[in-house]
Design a protein that fits this description.
The complex is a heterodimer.
Chain A: H1 3-20, H2 23-39, H3 46-71, H4 75-89, H5 93-105, H6 108-121, H7 128-189, H8 193-226, E1 231-232, H9 238-278, E2 287-293, E3 296-302
Antiparallel strand pairs in A: 2-3
Chain B: H1 2-15, E1 28-29, E2 33-40, E3 50-57, E4 68-77, E5 84-92, E6 104-109, E7 124-128, E8 139-141, E9 157-163, E10 186-194, E11 204-213, E12 222-229, E13 234-241, E14 255-260, H2 274-278, E15 290-291, E16 297-301, E17 318-319
Parallel strand pairs in B: 2-8, 4-11, 9-16
Antiparallel strand pairs in B: 2-5, 3-4, 3-6, 5-17, 6-7, 9-12, 10-11, 10-13, 13-14, 15-16
Classes of the chains: A mainly alpha, B mainly beta.
Chain lengths: 305, 324
Amino acid sequence: MTWSSGIGCGVSLALLLCLGGPSLASAQEEAEEMAPQGEDGEESGASAMRTEGLDDEQARARFRVGQALYMAGRFLEAAEEFESAYRLSGRRSLLFNAYLSFRDAGELEDAVRTLELYLEGDTDTEDAATLRQRLEAMKRTLAENRAQAAEAEAERERLDAQRAEAERQREEAERRAAEERQRAIEASQSLNPVGWVVGGAGVAIMAGGLVAGVLALNARNDLEASCPDDLCVAGFDLAEEEKSVQRPRLAADILLFAGGATVVAGVILLFTGRSIDVDEDAEARTTGGFMCGPSGCSGSLRTSF
Amino acid sequence: MRFTLLLCALLAPLGSGCFVIASTDDFVQDEGCDLELDLRQFNPHLNQEVQIRLTQLDPGAGAGATETELLAVGIFDPLTNPNVDITLPGAVPALEDPERERPQLDFFADFNGDGVYSDPPQDHTWTVEGLCLPDHDPTFVHNFNFVNLVTPRGRGSHLIVDFCPNLVNEDRIERGPDPLDPEVPLEVRATGTFLPTIDGGVEEERPVGFYRLGQLMRRPDGVRIPSVFDSGFNYQFQIYADQNDNYQFDDGEPAWTYSYVFSATAERCAPLTEASTCGLAAFSAEVPACLGEDNNIHVRLSRAHLINFGNLSGGDWFSIPEGT
């Protein structure tokens, strides 16, 4: 290493920093300070000199790299190089460079940290007051940023919580909707209990009709036994015996028809009730009919499942 | 709408009734019926005796039993027309016991001419059932589907119509009414009066037999209706001379009516003499039928007996279909 090259580098950095404001002089000064230290390194002993010299050499190299990076606009990397050079050389002016780099990189916290560290050691610089004001301003800004960040974080957390709550509510709603659909499906698959009751009553009535019919058939069988070839024997009271058949027969007819109609009504109720639950249109899908004519009656039931 | 349907269902059976299986519409009271038999194309049996029996399986006869009871009997002696409609009003009695079979007609033509029934093919024999059923067709066309007939159990007594000598002979002790032409047909009808045998029954009159004699001279001593009479009941006998041989009674044809009235002290038949039972004077009093020593009912048919003209009751029992 030669001082000419070191001075050259210091000049070029000074030129660069002049464009950035008051700190330019400080950086240049720091760069110039490094040369005498290199030359005055003998005062620390030969071994120390070699070590010091070695560190300075590395510090200079870091410094130059930092300069190049800064010139290239890669401020954060430049700040790291300057800090590294500071740790190697212990020259506080490098902290100023690091501060500038952090500042330009937008790393306010590191900028405050490095500037604060820079100002701790030397409060006699001309621009110390200005720098302190700037430091305070940056601290306030940093505090505000932190507060804002904290607030933003809190807001984010609150929003996250709200989002999570909304998500939970949505899932709960979906779950309930699914349950409702399942219940609706189950309800659609089950039949209207009123229909069961009515249909059951119809079946019971028809059973009564069958009993009456059996009685009528028995009476008719008795009649048939007394009337071979449909001719009733002499002395047989056909009129009275016919009544004994016709009475239960009439009862059977009435009960069977009534029971049948009730069963039909029950079936209609079965499907009508569930259709309303499932689908309003299904009302038209279940139809029943009953017609009576001179020769008898007929019933029909049409439904879809 | 549902209530309307229910109402229809309730009212429907009142109008039509749907329990058809228990319908009683087909049942009718058995009141007996006429004995009807319309013989057709019986040319092979012209001038042969044809006997018709109304029979019924005996009461209490088990399955497969064949013993029958004679309810009525009719005889063509001989059959003189191949087509004859026979109608005995109310001759088929109503069934009184549902366990019994209904009466049937057994009839045969005495094809071998031995005067008695012989199993086919010696005689030609037939059976007709379902006499009183609504769909019964009395027409019977001669066929060769012969069946063995069972000789029925009679009721114990015959009707014997004794012909008095004055019936056809002019040469009498004393001159009586004009004798009948020996070739004139004679028809005998027997009707019984039966007491009810069941509770609520009524006394009924029912034909029990006929005998149509082709010519008086064919049986100069008289004719016999076999076995169908029970001397414990009352009978009426109508006899007429079918002078125009049209099988029907016409005004002016000689006709007689005799009655048999059951009585425990009924007078027995006196010996058949012209003086007492046949009468010699014109239009002498009617002699009632009597019970003979042989336990048969006798009628003494005399030309001198009171003759009914045009007042036979019950209508004609036979007719000859037009075009035959």
